[in-house]
Amino acid sequence: MAHPKHTEQPQEPLSQEESPLFRLPPEIRLIIYKDIFVAPTTIHLSWVHGCYCRFRSFLCKLPEEHQYEKTRSGDLCDKCREDHFKCHPRQKPPNKNAIKRRTYIPPRQRQTRVMNMLRSCKRVYYETIDMLYQQNSFYIKHPYTLTELCKYMPKERLSSFRTLSLEFLPENRSVYLSRYECLPLPGWSVIARALKKLDGLEFLCLIMRPYQDQGNEIQAVEKLIQKAKAQKYFAVAPRLLWAATSDIWGTRKKSVRGCPLHGIHGTESQCSRYYGF
């Protein structure tokens, strides 16, 4: 059934001098800006390369206690079953035969997102753009999103990031790509160069999802990160989090090391001792 046509009355934009927003004191505007531009939880950034945008953002759906990148370091065991895969709004439904119907969104409602507000007024942009990147926590699920972000985003905006969690798989690319729609998986040197551009970071968490032979992967990645730190690729010492991943059948792989959350084996992980987390 076709949607009824919506008729909207055209509105003339107000000048900055006439805008009620800019008549308010700067302190009041700051409160309003924080309510709009500072998210209540982590913001996910994802590469989509759509017709109208290359990236999209969406809020994290996990409760705070399951966002391990904020509080943990080292290895997680098979009991740590929560990850951010379900946060994506385009996740596949449990029933593959289910038909997902799109909800009609009026044109005016489509224009109420944060980025559209930034585009609407230069003064709003300059008063809020630093707040958007400095006071929010960002999570990138695939390293290709990070490398593409560094291609399209200006240097001054990249320097505004303060909190970032980046997830990637050191080995076994076929399993990783099957879950993330066959996006290219950049090499470590490309990822490190991209992280170097985020020179304003105050918190960096690298989430590794090893598939098998975890001990060898830990040693290999430790050497790479140690070399990158020596070459000053990171603005801040990264926190490492090793999380059990799923294989192609959806079975969780059990971590063989000590889990800082559940205390499996009762030992502290090698990464925690090495980096002093």
From TrEMBL:
InterPro entries: DUF7730 (IPR056632)
Organism of derivation: Aspergillus versicolor CBS 583.65
Domain DUF7730, first and last residues per copy: 15-224
UniProt name for this protein: DUF7730 domain-containing protein
Domain of life: Eukaryota
